[in-house]
Structure prediction request, 167 residues.
Amino acid sequence: MISWLPRREFLFVTFVSTLFTLQGCGGALFKVKPVVELPPLPDSARSISGNGITFRVAPLLSDEESQELFEANLPVAGILPVRMELVYDGGPPVEINRARFRLRDGEGLEWKLLTTKKAVSRIMKANDIYAYNPNSRKRFEKEFGAYEIDLKTPVTPADRRLGFLFF
Prediction:
């Protein structure tokens, strides 16, 4: 123990510094905007229809857009978020959990569909984040994953879903 610092003050300084350290590590990794109704897809969005299901897609190309939504530069992390709109016009419920999505760029290279966890790992690696509070990461994964389009539950008539696929 430091001889010039009385025990009471030493404990107080230790407590306060521990408190500030825990406060600094407990915040969010990135401030993801809460999910709200996204603006409509642009008219330039590509679409395909079949058996009453219509898919419309448009990539989120600018880093400003990704910064605004996720407070992270997704293109720097090698992630291309693609906005998708799914509309089901009628008929019995349809299982879409087995649907596979592929993306090819102008050079013919195929991009791999990323899960939320893999996308978050890429973002953290690109931003050199290696020491963090595990609860902060879980919170970021949850907030980031809220933007992912739901492909697990069956679509029902008049169903319209919006969200992102991350490649």
The chain has a mean pLDDT of 83. The CA atoms of residues 114 and 167 lie 5 Å apart. The longest strand covers residues 81-88. The radius of gyration is 22 Å.
